[in-house]
Amino acid sequence: MTATSVLDDAPLSGFHKRLALYSSGGPFLDGYVLSIVGIALVQLGPQMHLSDTAQGLIGASALIGIFCGAFLGGYLTDKFGRQVLYTIDLVAIIGCSVAQFWAGDPVWLFVLRLLIGMAVGADYPIATSLLAEFTPRRYRGPLLGGLMVMWFVGAATAYVVGEALLTVGDNGWRWMLASPALPAAIIVLLRLGTPESPRWLAKKGRVDEANAVMRKVFGDRASISDLPEEERENAGLVLLWRSGYLGRMLFVSAFWTCSIVPLFAVYAFGPRILGALHLNGQLANIGSALITVFFVVGCVLAMVVINRMGRRALIIHSFLWSGLALLLLGLVPSAPAAVIITLFAAYAVLIGGAQNLQWIYPNELFPTEVRGTAVGLASSLSRIGAAIGTYLVPLALTSWGIGTTMLTAAAITLLGAVISMRWAPETRGLALHESAALTDPATTGA
């Protein structure tokens, strides 16, 4: 084993699998939190006499929180470490989720969901940076992509739990919004004892601690001398403004936005959107859960083919064909229920590639010093569009109708295909320091 391959070419161990599982807690909670509100609003809206504007704000509040929390979490994890913040953010989710049970007005509910979104957003750069910096190159794409699978598992779980809690009476929505506290508590317990990233420790001059982690994870003979040298730059936010990294940041933020605006709108108002497509009542909730299963299938398929197909080809095809499925939904909004579900299922499966690459590209395209900051900033910027889109969904359904609303979603998705054709790089098979280096010829994009 060469000096530079101890980490990047290591076999997949039990430690890597456990770390991937623990890191998936944030995406699971994200999908759960953003989806459960869609069902809760079915009961909550009439009880509190919420207008379309109020429903849009409550639906988008967690996204606004993610905008603030992701960048802050990224900056803090680059400054203070990945492991320190790895559980703190989930403790905040537990407290705010429980507090939602006693929310007595929409303003208080908006504030609590804003805080939950901040904690969820902070977990993105923390968990993904830690996983990327420990994972061998061969498994980095599938394991990071697997985090997105857990987003949809969380969303599917939310629909099942929400449907069950609708039967408990008028307070069902309170139990729904408090329910994320339980999985968050389980994830906190699982994460205890996770080691710090040796790459980050080495960058901070904490050599003895870095060597201890290397020996613990990779064997008694491993040390930081086995870590590859990264391209040295001016550390900090200034690095992100250099021409090459600024281009990468714009690409990641743009494609991430195009991939989540339609998706988050569907998850925040899934039952209402399907209702507008003539799938009403329990059928709308069941349809939402079924579509979520297809989202999981799409992400799993993307995990399987990503190393064979490559990052660039996968993201282009994902955007293109899923956009066409949404286009057909917009053109035939009065089609039979079977056709509507089939087209939604096609969108869900085909968008899996773009969804997986939300976690892979930003972690591969930036160096250790600013990896967390870059992931957090890209996530924050993408949430601006997602929050606006989610807020506008109930207004669009009322003013434009379902057909035009779905055509707008198709246009955003197809824009993602155009952006990817122009700027998506290929990072398949590269070590982390190679994919993050501006001078490496294998990264041909931004």
Automatic annotation (TrEMBL):
Alphabetical list of Gene3D superfamilies matching this protein: MFS general substrate transporter like domains
Ranges for domain Major facilitator superfamily (MFS) profile: 19-428
Keyword annotations: Membrane, Transmembrane, Transmembrane helix, Transport
Key word Transferase present: no
Transmembrane segments: 21-44, 56-77, 84-102, 108-131, 143-161, 173-194, 249-270, 282-306, 313-332, 338-361, 373-393, 399-419
Source superkingdom: Bacteria
Compartment(s) where it occurs, according to its Swiss-Prot or TrEMBL record: Cell membrane
Keyword Protease included in the entry's annotation: no
A single GO molecular function term of this UniProt record: transmembrane transporter activity
Record-linked PANTHER family: SYNAPTIC VESICLE GLYCOPROTEIN 2
Protein name as it appears in the record: MFS transporter
